Amino acid sequence: RSQISVPVFMFFLSFYYCDSGLSSLKMELLSDVSLLPGEERITDKDIIYICPFSGAVKGKVLITNYRLYFRSSDADVTVTLDVPLGAISRVEKMGGASSRGENSYGLDITCKDMRNLRFALKQEGHSRRDIFEVLFRYAFPLSHGLPLFAYLGQEKYAENGWTIYKPIEEFRRQGLPNNKWRISFINKSYDLCDTYPTVLAVPYKSKEEDLRKVAAFRSRARIPVLSWIHRENQAVIVRCSQPLVGMSGKRNKDDERYLDLIREANDTTKLTIYDARPNVNAVANKATGGGYEGDEYQNAELIFLDIQNIHVMRESQKKLKDIVYPNVEESHWLSSLESTHWLEHVKLVLSGAIQVADKVSSGNSVVVHCSDGWDRTAQLTSLAMLMLDSHYRTLRGFQVLIEKEWISFGHKFASRIGHGDKNHADQDRSPIFVQFIDCVWQMTKQFPTAFEFNEHLLLTILDHLYSCRFGTFLYNCESVRDQHEVRSKTVSLWSLVNSKVDMYLNPFYTPESGRVLYPVASMRHLELWVAYYIRWNPRIRQQQQSPVEQRYKELLALRDEYLKKLEQLQLSDSSTSSHLANSPTPNTTSSSTSTPSQQYTHLQTPL
Questions:
Q1: Annotation says 370 is catalytic
Q2: Domain count, the chain
Q3: Residues 132 and 199 in one domain
Q4: Residue 461 labeled ligand binder
Q5: Signal peptide location in the record (predicted)?
Protein backbone atom coordinates (compact mmCIF):
# COMPACT_ATOMS: atom_id res chain seq x y z
CA ARG A 1 0.00 0.00 0.00
CA SER A 2 1.48 3.40 -0.97
CA GLN A 3 1.95 5.94 1.79
CA ILE A 4 2.04 9.76 1.67
CA SER A 5 4.59 11.51 3.79
CA VAL A 6 3.36 14.01 6.40
CA PRO A 7 4.92 17.10 4.67
CA VAL A 8 3.29 16.21 1.34
CA PHE A 9 -0.05 15.63 3.06
CA MET A 10 0.22 19.01 4.84
CA PHE A 11 0.99 20.69 1.49
CA PHE A 12 -2.19 19.31 -0.12
CA LEU A 13 -4.22 20.25 2.94
CA SER A 14 -2.95 23.83 2.90
CA PHE A 15 -3.62 24.02 -0.85
CA TYR A 16 -7.21 22.85 -0.28
CA TYR A 17 -7.88 25.47 2.41
CA CYS A 18 -6.19 28.19 0.37
CA ASP A 19 -8.35 27.33 -2.65
CA SER A 20 -11.61 27.24 -0.67
CA GLY A 21 -10.59 30.50 1.02
CA LEU A 22 -10.17 32.13 -2.38
CA SER A 23 -13.56 30.94 -3.58
CA SER A 24 -15.24 32.16 -0.40
CA LEU A 25 -13.46 35.52 -0.86
CA LYS A 26 -14.74 35.56 -4.42
CA MET A 27 -18.30 35.01 -3.22
CA GLU A 28 -17.84 37.55 -0.41
CA LEU A 29 -17.04 40.26 -2.93
CA LEU A 30 -20.45 39.80 -4.58
CA SER A 31 -22.47 38.35 -1.70
CA ASP A 32 -23.87 41.79 -0.77
CA VAL A 33 -25.38 42.38 -4.22
CA SER A 34 -29.05 43.08 -3.62
CA LEU A 35 -31.21 40.79 -5.77
CA LEU A 36 -34.83 41.26 -6.79
CA PRO A 37 -37.49 38.85 -5.53
CA GLY A 38 -37.37 35.94 -7.99
CA GLU A 39 -33.83 36.76 -9.17
CA GLU A 40 -31.37 33.86 -8.92
CA ARG A 41 -27.57 33.68 -9.10
CA ILE A 42 -26.38 31.62 -12.06
CA THR A 43 -22.57 31.99 -12.02
CA ASP A 44 -19.72 34.27 -11.00
CA LYS A 45 -16.16 34.55 -12.26
CA ASP A 46 -12.84 36.42 -11.99
CA ILE A 47 -12.66 38.71 -14.99
CA ILE A 48 -11.01 41.84 -16.37
CA TYR A 49 -13.29 44.67 -17.48
CA ILE A 50 -11.76 46.72 -20.29
CA CYS A 51 -13.16 50.06 -19.15
CA PRO A 52 -13.03 52.72 -21.90
CA PHE A 53 -12.42 55.38 -19.22
CA SER A 54 -10.15 53.64 -16.64
CA GLY A 55 -8.43 50.94 -18.72
CA ALA A 56 -8.21 47.27 -17.68
CA VAL A 57 -9.87 46.71 -14.29
CA LYS A 58 -9.68 43.39 -12.41
CA GLY A 59 -12.79 42.23 -10.60
CA LYS A 60 -15.61 39.72 -10.34
CA VAL A 61 -18.67 39.34 -12.50
CA LEU A 62 -21.96 37.89 -11.28
CA ILE A 63 -24.58 36.72 -13.73
CA THR A 64 -28.14 36.13 -12.54
CA ASN A 65 -31.28 35.35 -14.50
CA TYR A 66 -31.88 39.14 -14.61
CA ARG A 67 -28.56 41.01 -14.66
CA LEU A 68 -24.82 41.14 -15.26
CA TYR A 69 -23.12 42.68 -12.23
CA PHE A 70 -19.40 43.56 -12.13
CA ARG A 71 -17.40 44.98 -9.25
CA SER A 72 -13.71 45.87 -9.34
CA SER A 73 -11.35 44.29 -6.82
CA ASP A 74 -8.57 46.87 -7.31
CA ALA A 75 -8.24 49.10 -4.27
CA ASP A 76 -7.35 52.18 -6.31
CA VAL A 77 -10.11 51.93 -8.97
CA THR A 78 -13.78 51.60 -8.05
CA VAL A 79 -15.90 50.39 -10.95
CA THR A 80 -19.33 48.76 -10.77
CA LEU A 81 -21.60 47.72 -13.61
CA ASP A 82 -25.24 46.73 -13.15
CA VAL A 83 -26.69 45.79 -16.53
CA PRO A 84 -30.11 44.16 -17.01
CA LEU A 85 -29.64 41.25 -19.41
CA GLY A 86 -32.61 42.55 -21.42
CA ALA A 87 -30.46 45.54 -22.41
CA ILE A 88 -27.98 43.25 -24.19
CA SER A 89 -28.32 43.13 -27.96
CA ARG A 90 -25.34 41.01 -28.92
CA VAL A 91 -22.67 38.80 -27.26
CA GLU A 92 -19.53 37.91 -29.23
CA LYS A 93 -16.30 36.08 -28.52
CA MET A 94 -13.23 38.29 -28.80
CA GLY A 95 -9.93 36.76 -29.90
CA GLY A 96 -8.95 33.08 -30.00
CA ALA A 97 -6.76 30.66 -28.05
CA SER A 98 -3.70 31.80 -30.05
CA SER A 99 -4.42 35.55 -29.80
CA ARG A 100 -1.43 37.67 -28.95
CA GLY A 101 -1.47 40.82 -26.87
CA GLU A 102 -2.66 41.62 -23.38
CA ASN A 103 -6.41 41.22 -22.72
CA SER A 104 -7.11 40.22 -26.32
CA TYR A 105 -9.17 37.15 -25.37
CA GLY A 106 -12.66 37.55 -23.95
CA LEU A 107 -16.17 38.81 -24.68
CA ASP A 108 -17.63 41.78 -26.54
CA ILE A 109 -21.14 42.81 -25.43
CA THR A 110 -23.25 45.29 -27.41
CA CYS A 111 -26.07 46.92 -25.45
CA LYS A 112 -29.31 48.54 -26.60
CA ASP A 113 -28.88 51.49 -24.22
CA MET A 114 -25.99 53.30 -25.98
CA ARG A 115 -23.02 51.41 -24.45
CA ASN A 116 -20.77 48.43 -25.17
CA LEU A 117 -18.92 46.25 -22.66
CA ARG A 118 -15.67 44.34 -23.15
CA PHE A 119 -14.32 41.69 -20.78
CA ALA A 120 -11.01 39.82 -20.91
CA LEU A 121 -10.29 36.35 -19.48
CA LYS A 122 -7.33 34.00 -19.21
CA GLN A 123 -6.66 32.05 -22.41
CA GLU A 124 -5.98 28.70 -20.74
CA GLY A 125 -8.57 25.95 -20.71
CA HIS A 126 -11.47 27.60 -22.58
CA SER A 127 -12.11 29.86 -19.61
CA ARG A 128 -14.75 31.93 -21.38
CA ARG A 129 -16.88 29.07 -22.72
CA ASP A 130 -19.05 28.67 -19.62
CA ILE A 131 -19.63 32.39 -19.08
CA PHE A 132 -20.39 32.93 -22.78
CA GLU A 133 -22.96 30.13 -22.77
CA VAL A 134 -24.65 31.35 -19.57
CA LEU A 135 -24.76 34.94 -20.80
CA PHE A 136 -26.06 33.96 -24.22
CA ARG A 137 -28.73 31.75 -22.70
CA TYR A 138 -30.08 34.22 -20.13
CA ALA A 139 -29.72 37.40 -22.21
CA PHE A 140 -31.83 35.81 -24.97
CA PRO A 141 -34.28 33.57 -23.07
CA LEU A 142 -36.93 33.41 -25.82
CA SER A 143 -34.32 32.05 -28.25
CA HIS A 144 -33.62 29.23 -25.76
CA GLY A 145 -37.17 28.32 -24.78
CA LEU A 146 -36.93 30.16 -21.44
CA PRO A 147 -39.42 32.72 -20.02
CA LEU A 148 -38.64 36.43 -19.87
CA PHE A 149 -37.64 37.58 -16.39
CA ALA A 150 -40.92 39.52 -15.99
CA TYR A 151 -42.61 36.10 -15.55
CA LEU A 152 -40.11 35.04 -12.87
CA GLY A 153 -40.00 38.24 -10.81
CA GLN A 154 -41.98 38.29 -7.56
CA GLU A 155 -41.99 41.98 -6.67
CA LYS A 156 -44.97 43.25 -4.68
CA TYR A 157 -46.25 46.82 -4.73
CA ALA A 158 -49.11 48.57 -2.93
CA GLU A 159 -50.67 49.73 -6.19
CA ASN A 160 -51.52 47.61 -9.21
CA GLY A 161 -50.12 49.55 -12.17
CA TRP A 162 -52.25 47.57 -14.62
CA THR A 163 -55.31 49.56 -13.48
CA ILE A 164 -53.85 52.97 -14.40
CA TYR A 165 -55.52 52.94 -17.84
CA LYS A 166 -59.19 52.07 -18.28
CA PRO A 167 -60.37 52.89 -21.82
CA ILE A 168 -64.00 53.67 -20.91
CA GLU A 169 -62.91 55.98 -18.05
CA GLU A 170 -60.47 57.80 -20.33
CA PHE A 171 -63.16 58.29 -23.01
CA ARG A 172 -65.54 59.62 -20.32
CA ARG A 173 -62.88 62.08 -19.17
CA GLN A 174 -62.82 63.36 -22.75
CA GLY A 175 -66.63 63.69 -22.76
CA LEU A 176 -67.42 60.53 -24.76
CA PRO A 177 -69.68 59.00 -25.86
CA ASN A 178 -71.82 61.90 -27.16
CA ASN A 179 -74.31 62.48 -29.97
CA LYS A 180 -71.51 62.41 -32.61
CA TRP A 181 -69.26 59.62 -31.34
CA ARG A 182 -70.04 56.20 -29.91
CA ILE A 183 -68.10 53.43 -28.20
CA SER A 184 -67.90 50.21 -30.20
CA PHE A 185 -67.03 46.72 -28.91
CA ILE A 186 -66.87 45.20 -32.40
CA ASN A 187 -63.24 44.24 -31.71
CA LYS A 188 -63.89 42.63 -28.30
CA SER A 189 -62.46 39.31 -29.52
CA TYR A 190 -59.91 40.95 -31.84
CA ASP A 191 -61.96 39.74 -34.82
CA LEU A 192 -61.98 43.06 -36.69
CA CYS A 193 -58.30 43.91 -36.15
CA ASP A 194 -55.89 41.75 -34.17
CA THR A 195 -53.50 44.65 -33.42
CA TYR A 196 -56.14 47.12 -32.14
CA PRO A 197 -57.58 47.38 -28.63
CA THR A 198 -61.02 45.94 -27.80
CA VAL A 199 -62.69 49.31 -27.10
CA LEU A 200 -62.93 51.78 -30.01
CA ALA A 201 -64.53 55.21 -30.48
CA VAL A 202 -66.14 55.62 -33.91
CA PRO A 203 -68.57 58.07 -35.60
CA TYR A 204 -72.09 57.79 -34.14
CA LYS A 205 -73.65 57.36 -37.59
CA SER A 206 -71.39 54.46 -38.59
CA LYS A 207 -72.79 50.94 -38.40
CA GLU A 208 -70.80 47.84 -37.40
CA GLU A 209 -71.09 46.55 -40.97
CA ASP A 210 -69.55 49.81 -42.24
CA LEU A 211 -66.55 49.25 -39.96
CA ARG A 212 -65.96 45.80 -41.45
CA LYS A 213 -66.08 47.18 -45.00
CA VAL A 214 -63.61 49.95 -44.10
CA ALA A 215 -61.31 47.40 -42.41
CA ALA A 216 -61.05 45.49 -45.70
CA PHE A 217 -59.61 48.63 -47.36
CA ARG A 218 -57.12 49.64 -44.64
CA SER A 219 -53.70 48.03 -44.12
CA ARG A 220 -53.84 45.37 -41.35
CA ALA A 221 -57.54 46.29 -40.92
CA ARG A 222 -56.48 49.29 -38.82
CA ILE A 223 -59.54 51.47 -39.44
CA PRO A 224 -59.75 55.20 -38.60
CA VAL A 225 -60.74 55.50 -34.90
CA LEU A 226 -60.81 58.42 -32.45
CA SER A 227 -57.78 59.04 -30.23
CA TRP A 228 -58.75 62.42 -28.75
CA ILE A 229 -61.54 65.01 -28.92
CA HIS A 230 -61.32 68.73 -28.15
CA ARG A 231 -63.88 69.49 -25.44
CA GLU A 232 -64.79 72.95 -26.74
CA ASN A 233 -64.69 72.79 -30.54
CA GLN A 234 -65.26 68.99 -30.82
CA ALA A 235 -62.43 68.61 -33.38
CA VAL A 236 -60.85 65.15 -33.22
CA ILE A 237 -57.57 63.33 -33.75
CA VAL A 238 -58.26 60.09 -35.61
CA ARG A 239 -55.60 57.45 -36.26
CA CYS A 240 -55.42 54.59 -38.78
CA SER A 241 -53.21 52.87 -41.38
CA GLN A 242 -52.80 53.58 -45.11
CA PRO A 243 -55.61 52.79 -47.59
CA LEU A 244 -55.02 49.78 -49.86
CA VAL A 245 -55.08 51.77 -53.10
CA GLY A 246 -52.37 49.81 -54.95
CA MET A 247 -50.92 50.50 -58.39
CA SER A 248 -54.32 50.38 -60.09
CA GLY A 249 -55.70 53.16 -57.87
CA LYS A 250 -58.55 51.20 -56.24
CA ARG A 251 -61.42 53.10 -54.64
CA ASN A 252 -63.64 52.17 -51.74
CA LYS A 253 -66.88 54.14 -51.36
CA ASP A 254 -67.36 52.89 -47.80
CA ASP A 255 -63.96 54.24 -46.76
CA GLU A 256 -64.62 57.59 -48.47
CA ARG A 257 -68.02 57.88 -46.78
CA TYR A 258 -66.56 56.89 -43.41
CA LEU A 259 -63.97 59.70 -43.56
CA ASP A 260 -66.75 62.09 -44.46
CA LEU A 261 -68.66 61.04 -41.31
CA ILE A 262 -65.57 62.01 -39.30
CA ARG A 263 -65.52 65.41 -41.00
CA GLU A 264 -69.26 65.98 -40.44
CA ALA A 265 -69.06 65.19 -36.71
CA ASN A 266 -68.00 68.76 -35.94
CA ASP A 267 -68.80 70.39 -39.32
CA THR A 268 -65.16 70.68 -40.33
CA THR A 269 -65.04 72.28 -43.79
CA LYS A 270 -62.10 70.18 -44.94
CA LEU A 271 -60.81 67.08 -43.19
CA THR A 272 -57.00 67.21 -43.00
CA ILE A 273 -55.23 63.89 -43.56
CA TYR A 274 -51.66 63.92 -42.27
CA ASP A 275 -49.57 61.20 -43.91
CA ALA A 276 -46.40 60.92 -41.82
CA ARG A 277 -44.33 59.57 -44.72
CA PRO A 278 -42.33 61.44 -47.37
CA ASN A 279 -44.40 61.72 -50.56
CA VAL A 280 -42.01 59.51 -52.54
CA ASN A 281 -42.30 56.68 -49.95
CA ALA A 282 -46.09 56.84 -49.98
CA VAL A 283 -46.08 56.55 -53.79
CA ALA A 284 -43.61 53.63 -53.60
CA ASN A 285 -45.95 51.85 -51.16
CA LYS A 286 -48.52 51.56 -53.97
CA ALA A 287 -46.30 48.87 -55.47
CA THR A 288 -46.91 46.68 -52.41
CA GLY A 289 -50.66 47.34 -52.37
CA GLY A 290 -50.65 50.40 -50.10
CA GLY A 291 -50.86 54.08 -50.94
CA TYR A 292 -52.63 57.24 -49.84
CA GLU A 293 -55.94 59.10 -50.14
CA GLY A 294 -56.30 60.76 -53.56
CA ASP A 295 -58.67 63.34 -55.04
CA GLU A 296 -61.60 60.94 -54.77
CA TYR A 297 -61.75 61.84 -51.06
CA GLN A 298 -63.79 65.00 -51.41
CA ASN A 299 -63.76 67.64 -48.66
CA ALA A 300 -60.33 66.37 -47.58
CA GLU A 301 -56.77 67.64 -47.96
CA LEU A 302 -53.65 65.46 -47.79
CA ILE A 303 -50.39 66.70 -46.24
CA PHE A 304 -47.15 64.67 -46.20
CA LEU A 305 -44.94 65.23 -43.13
CA ASP A 306 -41.66 63.80 -44.51
CA ILE A 307 -40.81 61.62 -41.49
CA GLN A 308 -38.47 58.79 -42.47
CA ASN A 309 -39.12 55.07 -41.91
CA ILE A 310 -37.87 52.70 -39.18
CA HIS A 311 -34.73 51.71 -41.12
CA VAL A 312 -33.53 55.30 -41.48
CA MET A 313 -34.14 55.91 -37.75
CA ARG A 314 -32.18 52.78 -36.80
CA GLU A 315 -29.16 53.84 -38.88
CA SER A 316 -29.35 57.36 -37.48
CA GLN A 317 -29.20 56.08 -33.89
CA LYS A 318 -26.25 53.81 -34.77
CA LYS A 319 -24.34 56.84 -36.07
CA LEU A 320 -25.24 58.75 -32.91
CA LYS A 321 -23.87 55.94 -30.74
CA ASP A 322 -20.62 55.99 -32.73
CA ILE A 323 -19.95 59.64 -31.85
CA VAL A 324 -20.96 59.51 -28.16
CA TYR A 325 -19.62 56.12 -26.97
CA PRO A 326 -17.14 55.39 -25.58
CA ASN A 327 -15.71 58.87 -26.11
CA VAL A 328 -17.40 62.02 -27.30
CA GLU A 329 -16.08 63.22 -30.66
CA GLU A 330 -14.73 66.58 -29.38
CA SER A 331 -12.82 68.03 -32.34
CA HIS A 332 -15.70 68.08 -34.85
CA TRP A 333 -18.64 67.70 -32.46
CA LEU A 334 -21.23 69.84 -34.25
CA SER A 335 -20.52 68.46 -37.72
CA SER A 336 -20.41 64.89 -36.33
CA LEU A 337 -23.76 65.36 -34.60
CA GLU A 338 -25.25 66.86 -37.74
CA SER A 339 -24.04 63.91 -39.82
CA THR A 340 -26.15 61.51 -37.69
CA HIS A 341 -29.35 63.43 -38.66
CA TRP A 342 -30.81 62.39 -35.28
CA LEU A 343 -31.93 65.88 -34.23
CA GLU A 344 -33.23 66.50 -37.73
CA HIS A 345 -35.54 63.48 -37.36
CA VAL A 346 -36.61 64.67 -33.89
CA LYS A 347 -37.38 68.07 -35.43
CA LEU A 348 -39.58 66.56 -38.16
CA VAL A 349 -41.55 64.44 -35.68
CA LEU A 350 -42.12 67.44 -33.38
CA SER A 351 -42.97 69.67 -36.32
CA GLY A 352 -45.58 67.18 -37.56
CA ALA A 353 -47.17 66.94 -34.10
CA ILE A 354 -47.30 70.74 -33.85
CA GLN A 355 -49.19 70.90 -37.16
CA VAL A 356 -51.69 68.29 -35.90
CA ALA A 357 -52.20 70.12 -32.58
CA ASP A 358 -52.58 73.52 -34.25
CA LYS A 359 -55.15 72.24 -36.74
CA VAL A 360 -57.24 70.61 -33.98
CA SER A 361 -56.91 73.64 -31.71
CA SER A 362 -58.35 75.83 -34.49
CA GLY A 363 -61.41 73.55 -34.78
CA ASN A 364 -60.49 71.23 -37.68
CA SER A 365 -60.59 67.44 -37.35
CA VAL A 366 -57.57 65.45 -38.55
CA VAL A 367 -56.71 61.90 -39.60
CA VAL A 368 -53.14 60.69 -38.99
CA HIS A 369 -51.48 57.65 -40.54
CA CYS A 370 -48.18 56.29 -41.85
CA SER A 371 -47.97 52.84 -43.47
CA ASP A 372 -49.38 50.53 -40.80
CA GLY A 373 -50.20 53.16 -38.18
CA TRP A 374 -48.15 51.81 -35.28
CA ASP A 375 -44.85 53.77 -35.47
CA ARG A 376 -44.87 57.37 -36.78
CA THR A 377 -48.62 57.56 -36.23
CA ALA A 378 -48.21 56.82 -32.50
CA GLN A 379 -45.45 59.46 -32.26
CA LEU A 380 -47.64 62.13 -33.88
CA THR A 381 -50.91 61.43 -32.07
CA SER A 382 -49.35 61.11 -28.60
CA LEU A 383 -47.18 64.24 -28.97
CA ALA A 384 -50.10 66.28 -30.32
CA MET A 385 -52.26 65.09 -27.39
CA LEU A 386 -49.46 66.05 -24.98
CA MET A 387 -49.46 69.56 -26.48
CA LEU A 388 -53.25 69.91 -26.39
CA ASP A 389 -54.26 68.23 -23.13
CA SER A 390 -52.62 69.16 -19.80
CA HIS A 391 -53.91 65.95 -18.21
CA TYR A 392 -51.30 63.97 -20.16
CA ARG A 393 -48.62 66.25 -18.71
CA THR A 394 -49.30 64.93 -15.18
CA LEU A 395 -47.45 61.89 -13.83
CA ARG A 396 -50.45 59.56 -14.08
CA GLY A 397 -51.81 61.16 -17.23
CA PHE A 398 -48.52 60.48 -19.03
CA GLN A 399 -48.75 56.82 -18.02
CA VAL A 400 -52.27 56.74 -19.51
CA LEU A 401 -51.00 58.34 -22.74
CA ILE A 402 -48.32 55.67 -23.18
CA GLU A 403 -50.72 52.84 -22.32
CA LYS A 404 -53.34 54.20 -24.71
CA GLU A 405 -51.52 55.44 -27.82
CA TRP A 406 -48.53 53.09 -27.76
CA ILE A 407 -49.35 49.89 -25.91
CA SER A 408 -53.07 49.39 -26.58
CA PHE A 409 -52.85 50.54 -30.21
CA GLY A 410 -50.17 48.01 -31.04
CA HIS A 411 -46.77 49.67 -31.35
CA LYS A 412 -44.63 46.59 -32.05
CA PHE A 413 -42.45 46.72 -28.94
CA ALA A 414 -41.29 43.09 -29.28
CA SER A 415 -40.20 43.61 -32.90
CA ARG A 416 -38.70 47.08 -32.42
CA ILE A 417 -36.76 46.22 -29.23
CA GLY A 418 -36.20 42.46 -29.64
CA HIS A 419 -36.92 41.40 -26.06
CA GLY A 420 -35.14 38.13 -25.27
CA ASP A 421 -34.29 37.53 -28.94
CA LYS A 422 -30.73 36.78 -30.13
CA ASN A 423 -31.35 38.04 -33.69
CA HIS A 424 -29.60 41.41 -33.27
CA ALA A 425 -29.58 42.12 -37.02
CA ASP A 426 -33.39 41.89 -37.30
CA GLN A 427 -34.50 44.64 -39.71
CA ASP A 428 -37.61 45.26 -37.61
CA ARG A 429 -35.55 46.76 -34.78
CA SER A 430 -35.86 50.54 -34.51
CA PRO A 431 -35.72 53.24 -31.78
CA ILE A 432 -39.18 54.71 -32.52
CA PHE A 433 -40.31 54.82 -28.87
CA VAL A 434 -36.93 56.20 -27.74
CA GLN A 435 -37.39 58.97 -30.30
CA PHE A 436 -40.83 59.77 -28.88
CA ILE A 437 -39.43 60.01 -25.33
CA ASP A 438 -36.64 62.25 -26.71
CA CYS A 439 -39.33 64.55 -28.19
CA VAL A 440 -41.07 64.65 -24.78
CA TRP A 441 -37.75 65.58 -23.16
CA GLN A 442 -37.30 68.41 -25.70
CA MET A 443 -40.73 69.72 -24.66
CA THR A 444 -39.87 69.54 -20.94
CA LYS A 445 -36.75 71.61 -21.65
CA GLN A 446 -38.76 74.29 -23.46
CA PHE A 447 -41.61 74.29 -20.91
CA PRO A 448 -39.93 73.50 -17.56
CA THR A 449 -43.03 74.26 -15.45
CA ALA A 450 -45.65 72.54 -17.64
CA PHE A 451 -44.90 68.89 -16.74
CA GLU A 452 -45.59 67.27 -13.38
CA PHE A 453 -42.95 64.58 -14.02
CA ASN A 454 -39.19 65.01 -14.30
CA GLU A 455 -36.35 63.69 -16.44
CA HIS A 456 -35.79 60.77 -14.06
CA LEU A 457 -39.17 59.34 -15.08
CA LEU A 458 -38.21 59.45 -18.77
CA LEU A 459 -34.89 57.72 -18.04
CA THR A 460 -36.64 55.06 -15.92
CA ILE A 461 -39.14 54.37 -18.72
CA LEU A 462 -36.34 53.89 -21.27
CA ASP A 463 -34.32 51.67 -18.92
CA HIS A 464 -37.30 49.37 -18.43
CA LEU A 465 -38.20 49.48 -22.10
CA TYR A 466 -35.26 47.05 -22.39
CA SER A 467 -34.92 45.42 -18.95
CA CYS A 468 -37.76 42.83 -19.21
CA ARG A 469 -38.30 43.30 -15.45
CA PHE A 470 -41.89 44.46 -16.03
CA GLY A 471 -44.58 43.30 -18.44
CA THR A 472 -45.52 46.80 -19.63
CA PHE A 473 -43.56 46.86 -22.90
CA LEU A 474 -43.63 43.16 -23.75
CA TYR A 475 -45.08 41.81 -27.02
CA ASN A 476 -46.46 43.60 -30.07
CA CYS A 477 -50.14 44.14 -29.26
CA GLU A 478 -52.96 43.56 -26.77
CA SER A 479 -54.19 40.30 -28.32
CA VAL A 480 -50.74 38.70 -27.91
CA ARG A 481 -50.45 40.09 -24.36
CA ASP A 482 -53.76 38.48 -23.52
CA GLN A 483 -52.52 35.13 -24.88
CA HIS A 484 -49.43 35.36 -22.66
CA GLU A 485 -51.47 36.55 -19.63
CA VAL A 486 -49.20 39.55 -19.12
CA ARG A 487 -51.55 41.37 -16.74
CA SER A 488 -52.00 38.45 -14.37
CA LYS A 489 -48.48 36.98 -14.51
CA THR A 490 -46.21 40.07 -14.59
CA VAL A 491 -45.89 43.37 -12.75
CA SER A 492 -46.55 46.74 -14.42
CA LEU A 493 -43.81 49.39 -14.56
CA TRP A 494 -46.38 51.86 -13.19
CA SER A 495 -46.57 49.82 -9.96
CA LEU A 496 -42.92 50.76 -9.35
CA VAL A 497 -43.33 54.39 -10.44
CA ASN A 498 -46.45 55.04 -8.37
CA SER A 499 -44.87 53.50 -5.27
CA LYS A 500 -42.06 56.10 -5.38
CA VAL A 501 -43.89 59.14 -6.72
CA ASP A 502 -41.56 61.70 -5.08
CA MET A 503 -38.64 60.48 -7.19
CA TYR A 504 -40.44 61.37 -10.41
CA LEU A 505 -42.00 64.76 -9.58
CA ASN A 506 -40.86 68.04 -11.11
CA PRO A 507 -40.47 70.66 -8.34
CA PHE A 508 -41.10 73.49 -10.84
CA TYR A 509 -44.50 72.14 -11.99
CA THR A 510 -47.31 74.71 -12.24
CA PRO A 511 -50.69 73.28 -13.32
CA GLU A 512 -52.33 75.18 -16.23
CA SER A 513 -55.38 73.30 -17.47
CA GLY A 514 -56.27 75.14 -20.69
CA ARG A 515 -52.81 75.87 -22.04
CA VAL A 516 -51.73 74.45 -25.42
CA LEU A 517 -47.97 73.97 -25.73
CA TYR A 518 -46.30 74.76 -29.03
CA PRO A 519 -42.60 73.88 -28.78
CA VAL A 520 -40.17 75.50 -31.19
CA ALA A 521 -39.16 72.74 -33.61
CA SER A 522 -36.10 74.38 -35.09
CA MET A 523 -32.55 73.05 -34.99
CA ARG A 524 -31.45 76.10 -32.99
CA HIS A 525 -33.79 75.18 -30.13
CA LEU A 526 -33.27 71.41 -30.04
CA GLU A 527 -30.55 69.81 -27.92
CA LEU A 528 -28.94 66.41 -27.72
CA TRP A 529 -30.27 64.66 -24.62
CA VAL A 530 -26.90 64.30 -22.92
CA ALA A 531 -28.26 62.77 -19.69
CA TYR A 532 -29.50 59.79 -21.74
CA TYR A 533 -27.21 59.36 -24.74
CA ILE A 534 -23.91 60.21 -22.99
CA ARG A 535 -24.72 59.17 -19.42
CA TRP A 536 -22.22 56.28 -19.34
CA ASN A 537 -19.33 58.74 -19.58
CA PRO A 538 -18.25 59.34 -15.94
CA ARG A 539 -17.42 63.01 -16.63
CA ILE A 540 -20.95 63.65 -17.87
CA ARG A 541 -22.49 61.74 -14.95
CA GLN A 542 -20.87 64.08 -12.44
CA GLN A 543 -22.49 67.10 -14.12
CA GLN A 544 -26.03 65.71 -14.39
CA GLN A 545 -27.67 67.14 -11.24
CA SER A 546 -28.93 70.65 -11.95
CA PRO A 547 -27.77 72.96 -9.11
CA VAL A 548 -30.93 75.07 -9.55
CA GLU A 549 -33.18 72.03 -9.21
CA GLN A 550 -31.16 70.77 -6.24
CA ARG A 551 -31.44 74.13 -4.45
CA TYR A 552 -35.15 74.35 -5.23
CA LYS A 553 -35.72 70.89 -3.71
CA GLU A 554 -33.84 71.97 -0.58
CA LEU A 555 -36.03 75.09 -0.30
CA LEU A 556 -39.18 73.01 -0.73
CA ALA A 557 -38.02 70.65 2.03
CA LEU A 558 -37.31 73.67 4.24
CA ARG A 559 -40.77 75.06 3.51
CA ASP A 560 -42.40 71.75 4.46
CA GLU A 561 -40.41 71.74 7.70
CA TYR A 562 -41.56 75.28 8.59
CA LEU A 563 -45.17 74.49 7.71
CA LYS A 564 -45.05 71.46 10.01
CA LYS A 565 -43.72 73.61 12.86
CA LEU A 566 -46.40 76.21 12.14
CA GLU A 567 -49.07 73.53 12.33
CA GLN A 568 -47.71 72.36 15.69
CA LEU A 569 -47.75 75.94 16.98
CA GLN A 570 -51.33 76.42 15.83
CA LEU A 571 -52.39 73.19 17.56
CA SER A 572 -50.71 74.14 20.83
CA ASP A 573 -52.17 77.68 20.65
CA SER A 574 -55.68 76.43 19.95
CA SER A 575 -55.49 74.04 22.91
CA THR A 576 -54.26 76.92 25.12
CA SER A 577 -57.08 79.15 23.83
CA SER A 578 -59.75 76.54 24.51
CA HIS A 579 -58.35 76.04 28.02
CA LEU A 580 -58.53 79.82 28.64
CA ALA A 581 -62.02 80.00 27.18
CA ASN A 582 -63.23 77.35 29.64
CA SER A 583 -61.71 79.27 32.57
CA PRO A 584 -63.94 82.08 34.02
CA THR A 585 -61.93 85.27 33.51
CA PRO A 586 -63.40 88.68 34.41
CA ASN A 587 -63.04 91.90 32.38
CA THR A 588 -62.81 90.21 28.91
CA THR A 589 -63.72 92.54 26.08
CA SER A 590 -64.66 91.85 22.48
CA SER A 591 -61.48 93.54 21.29
CA SER A 592 -59.33 90.87 22.91
CA THR A 593 -60.98 87.90 21.23
CA SER A 594 -58.33 87.71 18.52
CA THR A 595 -56.37 84.59 19.41
CA PRO A 596 -52.79 83.83 18.41
CA SER A 597 -54.02 81.03 16.14
CA GLN A 598 -56.11 83.51 14.16
CA GLN A 599 -53.04 85.68 13.72
CA TYR A 600 -50.93 82.73 12.59
CA THR A 601 -53.32 81.72 9.83
CA HIS A 602 -52.37 84.85 7.89
CA LEU A 603 -48.69 83.91 7.88
CA GLN A 604 -47.38 83.03 4.43
CA THR A 605 -43.93 81.91 3.37
CA PRO A 606 -42.36 83.53 0.30
CA LEU A 607 -41.37 80.10 -1.02
A1: yes
A2: 2
A3: no
A4: no
A5: none
